[in-house]
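Rotation project, supervised by the postdoc (A.L.). Task for the rotation student: set up a whole-complex structure prediction and record inputs and outputs verbatim in this book. Inputs entered:
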Amino acid sequence: MTSVLDRPEDFAASALSGFCAAYPGHVVSVPHGALRAGAVPPGKVAVVVGGGSGHYPAFLGYVGTGLADAAVAGDVFASPSTSAIASVARAAEAGGGVILGFGNYAGDVLNFGAAAERLRAEGIDARILAVTDDIASAGPGDRARRRGVAGDLLVFKIAGAAAEAGLDLDAVMDVALRANSRTMSFGMAFDGCTLPGHGAPLFTVPAGQVALGLGIHGEPGIRTQPLVPAAELARLLLEPLLAERPAGQDGRVAVVLNGLGRTKYEELFVLWHHLTGMLKDHGLTPVAPEIGEFVTSLDMEGCSLSILWLDDELEALWTAPADTPAFRRGSSGQVAPHRGAVRVADAAAAVPQASAAGRAAAPCIARVIARLADVLAGAEGELGRIDAIAGDGDHGQGMARGSAAAADAARQAVDAGAGPGTVLALAGDAWADRAGGTSGALWGVALRAWGQVLGDDAAPDAARVAQGARAALTAVTRLGGAQPGDKTLVDAFVPLVEALQTTDAPLAQAWSRGAQAATDAADATAHLTPRLGRARPLAERSIGHPDAGAVSLALCARTVAEVLAD
Amino acid sequence: MTSVLDRPEDFAASALSGFCAAYPGHVVSVPHGALRAGAVPPGKVAVVVGGGSGHYPAFLGYVGTGLADAAVAGDVFASPSTSAIASVARAAEAGGGVILGFGNYAGDVLNFGAAAERLRAEGIDARILAVTDDIASAGPGDRARRRGVAGDLLVFKIAGAAAEAGLDLDAVMDVALRANSRTMSFGMAFDGCTLPGHGAPLFTVPAGQVALGLGIHGEPGIRTQPLVPAAELARLLLEPLLAERPAGQDGRVAVVLNGLGRTKYEELFVLWHHLTGMLKDHGLTPVAPEIGEFVTSLDMEGCSLSILWLDDELEALWTAPADTPAFRRGSSGQVAPHRGAVRVADAAAAVPQASAAGRAAAPCIARVIARLADVLAGAEGELGRIDAIAGDGDHGQGMARGSAAAADAARQAVDAGAGPGTVLALAGDAWADRAGGTSGALWGVALRAWGQVLGDDAAPDAARVAQGARAALTAVTRLGGAQPGDKTLVDAFVPLVEALQTTDAPLAQAWSRGAQAATDAADATAHLTPRLGRARPLAERSIGHPDAGAVSLALCARTVAEVLAD
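Outputs recorded:
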């Protein structure tokens, strides 16, 4: 949808107004378009680009040093009028003639062509530059009939850089036409776009399908096929372009991977992740590639890949500085030298050596954690089902993965001579790192805090264990922010800690009572509504069901009690 | 939808890989994140930001000079793990301590907090900076519970600039916390987003509604109401922020108008068009405002407005240079002085004075065009209905608007002493400019070409009129590219021109024959399929219906014949 608008017929004009207001350092508003703000050397060739609105940053976003001198904005997906183009071109003209650049669509061809005729009749040398990069729209033998898509950016950048470098009108046209003849794009669409004021999309792509070569306004494509993984999409984009590699070309390519609006940056980066390798495999070297949104189509879902087969002159022009609202080349300062080798290895903590008593007590801790890992592996499915009621259902998996990693770390720590506190702390770190998510982080800080209280010098007695439990609970509430009643593991943790602290009973008996209290409390969370960070529908869905984190904590408490009772 | 992916569980990692491959000049890849590429002064405070993936350019796109030293990327919408954060922070640390910046969400609070504890245990001074800008998520008295949204950019920019300026850890934290306490955001959503690998959106907004204050992962908002025009949406975004203006604040504000993914640039510019006036009305001066996508949420449809209430220090830090993949401040070169007064007035063509004979003949041309305007006004609805079968249905409106403007221009030209040729040429220009679209441009060049043949010095005879008609047809086919049989107005124009040229009959009789031939040919276009620039479904739909352009040309020919017969 296009949801933000006043009257549909005002959409393009309001967008133009807002654009000019947003970039006073780059552009000056003129009727029907925007003009480069800075002074222009007399005699410079003026590069004026344009077309329908709805394609931002095409074309307004290209106005600035090193790219376009002005842009003309038509209505959404409609060519600007002849007089609008001529009027903007007159304002941009600086004595060196004008190049009118646009994508090759019927309405634009008409109006830019008519504007050029009008300007010439007034004595302004005006040329037209129709970009024809979309290989899906016509064969290599019929290039003049090809549509213009994201190749606009490549061709206009070359023209803009050539004009900025002071070339005359003939020379700028020559290099721009050469760039156009060496620029090819291929696109794919996953879904259509909706015009301002319309309730339904202009065109659609069937769900689960990808339309290859579909035009950015719904013009016919090549074929529709089932959606495939990103690696295959990357191949589908690249291979048709390779077929038109100029003979003898040395492999340097300017590349634009363009999102059409709803296909977002991360998806483009996933494609680029694959394309970098594929380009290399084909002997191609991308020069200053651009990944992002350059020629959009309202909220259309899809993307395109454009290649400009470079030579020395084209490479210099492609990499020349530019500074526009939507496109910048060249640094704002000196590029600092690359930093040296990056330290990425974890600071491997040396295991502190424990006293003999500590070393003797440590294996018991490791055994408890190993048993927890066994039990949590068995409970993985059940905990996942409970979590799925109000969450993403990954709690069982996280607890199983975390406890397994903790058991490994604990065993290694024992073997390395650690005492009870270090064993527990290292187990906690491993748990957090492998489990991921909120509960992983909480279990990590809990075990680490508990271990710090236990220390490494003696077998912990019941009072020390209870004190550690209190420290663990404090760490959990400090880091997690949950209070009793919030329907989290804290609801089960609090009664466990209180049971451990309010008894003089031996350790096993204290744990047995604590485990029972934690289990009762976990069951009672079914009556609560979660308060922290849960969307409302999820929170409501969870009423009548216990919290997965509280249930797993109670399960762990019972397991410890069982081990101690053995 | 998120359509570009391989395995859902690899999405974030592949996107990170592609991002690092795309910006080798800005970043170095490290496990779980990206590190600023350039050398960093020893002792500089390291600003490390991060959070879940799916929010690009948050957070990877912020890495570079003047902003973040590194970013950590979690899974989609999931906090990075404690060890991932600690590992990236260790790589970024340059001896001045580390600030860990993130949006205030439970998982991030846990993991960044635990990472800070781990780093401190290793002797690295680490602080946490939780951004809390979303005023919809908690009241002004409960700021610490607010979520972090697009205010991330504002707060991180301040911290990054302060660190770049060489402030020490305490000083950077002070100014960053002050920035956070003065940063407020309010957002609205039109539709939800879809996680990679999921077939349905994570949450939805009812069609035709806007959800105010909805969180970027679907967290509860304030209310849902019917969608309203953009001017009202702008007010809904701005007013809640004004309520928290600090006492005595002088009106300078840093502003971020942020698109969440599917709400596109033009829509944001439409909002900005309204917001600039509203800010001024409230005595506020936006300083270096940013309009675009800064914290997205996959393909979520919506936007947010963020304000940072500036003071002198914050303004200097906000406007300080930065150079990252997604955010740049400071020019790549010298900003040229503003160009002087911009020539925007159309080069008002002086009306060339015609001979007496020419002046005498001109009113007849103007009468013909006035009659065309009457007829086309009456036919507007019918022509629109024909056009809607295979087009956007605006043909009737364009013809009515164009001919009315042409009639006005013709009358004025006659009054100014123009001859037949100039009257027709100026009528053509006016037609093209007011009608817009393809047919407007074609009618414009047709009348202009026709007028040039007629000249201004005599009443045109039948032969001259026929010769003008041929010139008009040539101009139309040259500019429009259509051939007979393409189902355009050319199909009716060709028989008209041939009838005019192949007879010695008087003008009125020749037009009568030509009009009949054009009408027959227009009817016959019902059997044709359009070939130029029409999407396939539209082309198929048009079979059995005549072309609107041909029908209107025939109607005009009949009208001319009637006027001449009178």
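Student's summary: The mean pLDDT of chain B is 91.
Supervisor addendum: Chain B touches chain A through 131 residues (CB under 8 Å).
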